[in-house]
Amino acid sequence: MEGIAQIVIFYILAVAIVACSIMAVTSRRIFRAAVYLLVVLLCTAGLYLLLNYHFLAVVQLSVYAGGILILFIFAILLTSAKGDRTEPHDKRRVVSGVLTALAGLGITSWATVKHQFLYGNNPTVLGDHETNMKVVGETLMGTGKYEYLLSFEALSILLLICAVGGILIARKR
Amino acid sequence: MWSFEKLTEWIDTSLRSCMSADGALLVEFVLIGIAILVGYALLALFLIYAERKICAFFQCRLGPNRVGKWGIFQSVADMIKILLKELIQINKSDKMLFRLASFFVIIGSVCTFGAIPFAKGLQAIDFNVGVFYILAISSLGVVGILLAGWSSNSKYSMIGAMRSGAQLISYEISAGLSLMVIVVYSGTMQLSEIVAQQADGWFIFKGHVPAFIAFVTYLIAGHAETNRGPFDMAEAESELTAGYHTEYSGIQFGFFYLAEYLNLFIIAAVASTMFLGGWQPLHIPGWDGFNHVMDYIPSFLWFFVKTCFCMFMAMWVRWSFPRLRIDQLLGLEWKILMPICLINLILMSVVVIL
Question: Cβ contacts (< 8 Å) between A133 and chain B: which residues?
């Protein structure tokens, strides 16, 4: 993709992410907050697309937009009544929240500026660096060095335990 | 066989010769956007007309026959009517979410529409994770439906949305698993690559028994995902008036209506791309003369004929079977369809290994 177009798209996505994240935190209607969060997650997927990392973008879409956010929405639908609004936060919590956010911003920007990026400072490797789906799949399912079959299976057992636990709690009479 | 790549390349080079690279890119973005939206709208008009006619024939009626010859302009007239209708504001509804919901549904559907290979070289988005992308982006529609049900401030909408949400996320599993069968067989997720591999025989013929089972399960699951036919519990008009879009009016309702029809098209198009060879002509190994004659039929015609065949089957099912109860509906998915899909996936893996 050409230079200017990439920069313009990046700034549109960045502004949308920042604005929607702030609205997700400050909105007093919980359902709206969930929708703002969805927009943030979709724009993050857009950033991955911009980096030519299609696999991660699609995973972001399917896991967050298709899975986790639907779970949030179902939970909200089942627990809160129509027109529920949260209480306005008290001053101390707002101040401490803002301070924590600023500290986080400081740390991440310091780390980003300080970090020596493998590709960023090396103009010879710039260009299309798309990780092929095949490579991702084989690395995820391989048993050799730097391959992740064991952790993948361990995670799936963890998820199974969560599902069984959830059913156990829900069925308690 | 004539490829649309020549046309797109010609547009690209002629744009780049008269303006800067970024300008050309911008113009191309706009052109592709307009092309996809116009194609989307025209297909919706065609589908609504086709559905009404086919439904009428199944019910021994004539269907629309006043506007134009055989009523072919009926859906155009309906479109003008729906554009002129008033948008009714619902009391005590969450106005912003109410408006946003219809956009979520339509965005999910348009983004999926863009990834379909319509003809040789005519595909807007071609990721190497194409199949996964289609499955992921179409799940945006569920969010829109849940939002619509919640923000309408109506019991009917709410129940419809809950049913629809449960139905969509359940049947997505079967649809995904049936597509995985083909991914296992072809070894790729890129749609253009999958179509290219079917040049010497479509997967439904080449892929032995598992591919055929996957085709049938995908059609069933896809049909359920479009909220149509025997699976339209979400909008069961005898009990919920219209389900999640009860409170919508005018073009906001039109968006839901449009997305529903285009989702039917998308399911049929994906089925024909994955199983019936997409735009590939019918080739039988060994029959060179026959294959050569088949090559003269344009690729987009092949694609649309196959897609129309799949859509006709969906309409056939819709107007032939009575509606299921919601527990039967979810039982069908979790107790019957999903185990079949899982076993079928194992079967296909065995076929590939042998």
Answer: 128-129, 132, 188-190
Q: What is the pLDDT of residues B328-352, one digit of tens each?
A: 888 888 888 889 999 998 988 888 8
Domains of chain A: which residue ranges? 1-88, 132-173
Contacts of B147 in chain A (CB under 8 A): 31, 35, 73
> Which domain covers residue B301, as residue numbers?
91-353
Name the fold adopted by A1-88.
Four Helix Bundle (Hemerythrin (Met), subunit A) (1.20.120)
CB count in 10 Å sphere of residue B307: 25
Q: How many CB atoms lie within 10 A of CB A39?
A: 18
Other Cβ atoms closer than 10 A to B185: 22
Whole-angstrom Cα distance, residue A62 to residue B137? 7
- The two structure tokens encoding residue A15: 């502004």
How many H-runs (helices) and E-runs (strands) does chain A carry? 7, 0
Partner residue facing B142 (CB), from A29, A70, A133:
A70
Whether ipTM exceeds 0.85: no
Number of domains in chain B: 1
Question: Three-class SS of residue B3?
Answer: coil
For residue B262 the two structure tokens come to: 């285009």
At A116, list the tokens.
């020596």
Query: What is the rounded distance in angstroms from the CA atom of residue B198 to the CA atom of residue B216?
Result: 19
Tally of helices (H runs) and strands (E runs) in chain B: 16, 0
Q: Among B246, B253, B248, B233, which Cα is nearest to B156's?
A: B246
Q: Alpha carbon of B209 to those of A55, B166, B189, B198, B214: distances in Å?
A: 30, 30, 21, 16, 9
B165/A70 touch (CB, cutoff 8 Å), yes or no: yes
Domain assignment of residue B62, yes or no: no
Alpha-carbon separation of residue B59 from A164, B157, B264 (angstroms): 48, 29, 21
Question: Quick count: other Cβ atoms within 10 Å of Cβ A83?
Answer: 10
- Whole-angstrom Cα distance, residue A27 to residue A11? 23
Place of tokens 């006709």: B312
Mean pLDDT of A98-105: 92
- Name the residue among A138, A134, A157 with its Cα closest to residue A146: A138
d(CA A78, CA A68): 15
- Give, as one character, the DSSP assignment of residue B247: T
Whether the CB-CB separation of B152 and B98 falls below 8 Å is answered with yes
Chain B nearest-CA residue for A6: B22
Q: What is the pLDDT of residues B29-72, one digit of tens each?
A: 888 889 888 988 888 888 888 888 888 888 888 888 888 788 78
Rounded-to-integer distance, Cα B39 and Cα A5, Å: 26
**B137 neighbors B124 (Cβ within 8 angstroms):** no
Q: Do B128 and A132 touch (CB under 8 A)?
A: yes
Beta-carbon count within 10 A of A155 CB: 11
